[in-house]
Amino acid sequence: MSFPTFTFNTTADEVATAFAQQIQSKNVLITGTSMNGIGFETARVLAKHANLVIITGYNAERLALAEEAIKKEIPEANIRPLILDLSCLASVRKAAAEVNAYTEPLHVLVHNAAAPGGKFKLTVDNLETQMAIAQIGPFLLTKRIAPKLLATSSASYTPRVVYVSSGSHRVLSGFDLDMVAHPDPEKYTSGGGYSQAKSANILAAIELSKRAKGRINAYSLHPGVILTNIHQNEESKAGFIAAGVLGPDGLPNTSGRTKWKTMAQGAATTLVAAFDPRLEAKPGAYLVDCVEANNKIAPHASDPETAAKLWNVTEEIIGEPFSF
């Protein structure tokens, strides 16, 4: 079967239409699905084809709004809300137990949630917030529900885990492993914390694929630059303005080198990572504009030794081994 060639301009709906057969009958869990975000757009588009879409968030009211909006557009959609606060390990364990209790299998896990930048903040577990939400919470969630993903593995299907990273990981000259377990407010910057967290996403996809040995395929991706609820968050807006991503008015700066995507274009690469059969032989791949782009990973985010060390450090933080 031949599939279309995707580009910068490809939309999530176009990807879902191309892979409708692959999405049909699949159950997908997506983190960070608040409205006006690419996680919501991913869920909305998948709801047209998938058997079940599990949407998550820490705010029950916002989660209900997302569910309502999808069902209003797609009345037949099978949407299930799940309360999940990735900044709290106890909440992650509770949510994972709920998922494991579902009667349906789970085929795809999409780690889309991200913390807004801003000042240095510790979680209830004394972890830096951006790293907790991007790496440590998702690691624990993946570990706890891995058996449910593995149960869908067959001769014709390999379950997938997708990490929504960012091209901003390239800003760093190296990955600071010590900051993961021992966050230091003196060394922290909002942008640096974001780039660290997004580097961790890429390293996690590489190491998960390696350790799973073909039983789970993991991928990471840069969705593009999209105006989302994170850009509008008051804590992070100033940083984006200072970086020139947003203009002084808080709106996208279209005069610079940044090429902006629509929300529909922004969610497209996530769907490719989750369902494109052409990626089957490329576990751990990094995608940009809907295609493999491993050459665009910064050296610190593709180093196998760093990936293994990050895995081990994260195991120590959650107090649980994650092995296959």
TrEMBL record:
Stored InterPro entries: NAD(P)-bd_dom_sf (IPR036291), SDR_fam (IPR002347)
A single MF term (Gene Ontology): oxidoreductase activity
Keyword annotations of the record: Oxidoreductase
Domain of life of the organism encoding this protein: Eukaryota
Family to which the UniProt record says this protein belongs: Belongs to the short-chain dehydrogenases/reductases (SDR) family.
Protein name: Short-chain dehydrogenase/reductase family protein
Organism: Mycena metata
Top-level taxonomy: Eukaryota, Fungi, Dikarya, Basidiomycota, Agaricomycotina
